[in-house]
Amino acid sequence: MVADSRVKIWYRFLPREGWPQFDKEGVWATPLGGDLARVDNVPFFVDGAAEGDIVRFAMDAEGVRWVEERVEWSGRCTILVLPVRGGPKATAKAVHEVFAPLGVGAEAYSVEFPLVALSVPPDVDVRAAKALLNRGVEAGWWDYQEACIGDAWRTA
Fold this sequence. Notes:
Distance between the termini: 44 Å
Largest sheet: 5 strands, mixed, barrel
Structural class: alpha+beta
Radius of gyration: 16 Å
CATH class of the largest domain: Alpha Beta
Number of strands: 9
Shape: globular
Strand order of the largest sheet: 1-2-3-4-5
Protein name: DUF4265 domain-containing protein
């Protein structure tokens, strides 16, 4: 069995209004040599960060790796979906089932705060994904925020 070579890297950021008031978030990453790593999961609270990004980090005196900058964007969009409690799509599983047929990945934050972070690959039909998001808002299933998007998403 091969040992998991992933490491935890940490982002610092300003908390979003109305969201849990964290100012740092740890994500798993694969070291790429030197001070570079590839982000291996979807960030929940960091603006401008996505799964697959290549980042530069610095290690502090305690051995904690802090992200300093994104070196290369993965092309993935990060969309944060907050399901309406008690609604028909109130669980992370229900949200993911809506987007999975498009090839969109999802991670759940917690049961207490049912935030879902969607990871939209660059080869996904972003018009269809965006339409599903807006349809869900109109139906009262969820609200969402765009945490990391590119031009294809903006113009879809």
